């Protein structure tokens, strides 16, 4: 262990707080919290760890810590630091799951809407629903029963919903606040378990309509009753009361954790959330962080009550979320927690074989590639490709692979600015210069490997810029293709040398995925630029077509191809005067 690290470990305080682990580039790669900083941080550097934690520890060259007054402060600070720094090893926030909800908007004339986002907008939310279909069917049912406003923005005349009795037409008619409030309260009561009451009321009305020989109305009411039964009564009751509650349980093994959340609404388990992720701290502590992120940063709707497994601090959850939190010891509530735990164990076991296969394809492939190249495992790889089909509109693209997987939010596109004509070496130099000069300027973490689409000449061009202009010594490899445009040979070093790779090896498959992805990305960007250039050049000399109209046409048709296929009438319908439209048709269909 490095001397400075040993010295810092020796003077850690025995107080609660957060710690931030850094790699050799000073980038924060992991954030954790601790009841006692001295014990928790030291534990990373003593004893044995599973493979995942060992990999994290191997990358740590420095750390910072922040002392807090209480464990609660440490928990809140940890969540904020994870959100701010997005460390690579903190993965709990990186899922993009969302669930269907119904919302009554907080407007003068409220609407009932379907949504997957829970916002702090004073709206009243219900859910989550078991799936999108269930939420949409429930909304259709409520739309039939309660004619709230439907339009996002008020139209100037009544729409179809008014004519079929599903809206009172506040756009034209005066709808009293009391009438809106009455419908809102009815919907609230319905969604809070009062649909039995609504069904009874509809049954009475159906019988009365039958007695009055109004059979058409009786049939409508009967259909509504049947719809309520179909939508709202599909599941068996799970608890005796109707309290909305979320049930948490977890299991962990081999450095992985599975958290199961059961959503209980009106006494029924209506949906569940399953999250499987690697973890590097203490299981109970990571569960606290997960629960905090689940509600405060992923914006899941807070229930009336949260049920927790043994070991998770219910008082901390109660303080953090200001909600009733329990660790049930017996009865139906304990059975729900136990059921969630059994599901977590099963899900974790089912995932292990898939996880191991995935790691063989990704992280292990990265590590084996590093061994073949004689460099540290390149967990971050940046790959470049130039595209200048027929010598026009030269562009370049960069893709990023993190831990052997595409990291699309950091892909970049480049229009070549300083090179005239199809000069691949000069273009590569320009793009490498622009990318890594910015990296130095912004203090970004450098990749472990740069991959160039090409052979010796391309590698030398990139190395020249990196080493002689930017004083950077990042390994560069070139991927050459065979005559069938397939990944063929890997070159690296100075001077570049051929690196033999078995064509059925995981490192070779990884390189194929990288080369295919960067080529796809560069080609799609080139087509986009070329299409736009052709579009503009065709239209630039037409009287009556300026920048504003060009943008409007592109927005309307989406592409030059679709515009060329459009008829004169369709171009006129896009808001273009007929004489100008005729000129556009002629220009787009000219031989030139």
TrEMBL record:
Keyword Hydrolase part of the UniProt annotation: no
Subcellular location field: Cytoplasm
Superkingdom of the source species: Bacteria
Gene Ontology terms: biological process: nucleotide-excision repair; SOS response
Keywords: Cytoplasm, DNA damage, DNA excision, DNA repair, Excision nuclease, SOS response
Residue ranges of domain UVR in the record: 196-231
Annotated TM spans: none
Summary of the function given for this chain in its UniProt record: The UvrABC repair system catalyzes the recognition and processing of DNA lesions. UvrC both incises the 5' and 3' sides of the lesion. The N-terminal half is responsible for the 3' incision and the C-terminal half is responsible for the 5' incision.
Family: Belongs to the UvrC family.
PANTHER family: UVRABC SYSTEM PROTEIN C, UVRC/OXIDOREDUCTASE
Record's protein name: UvrABC system protein C
Organism: Fictibacillus aquaticus
Lineage: Bacteria, Bacillati, Bacillota, Bacilli, Bacillales
Gene name, Swiss-Prot/TrEMBL: uvrC
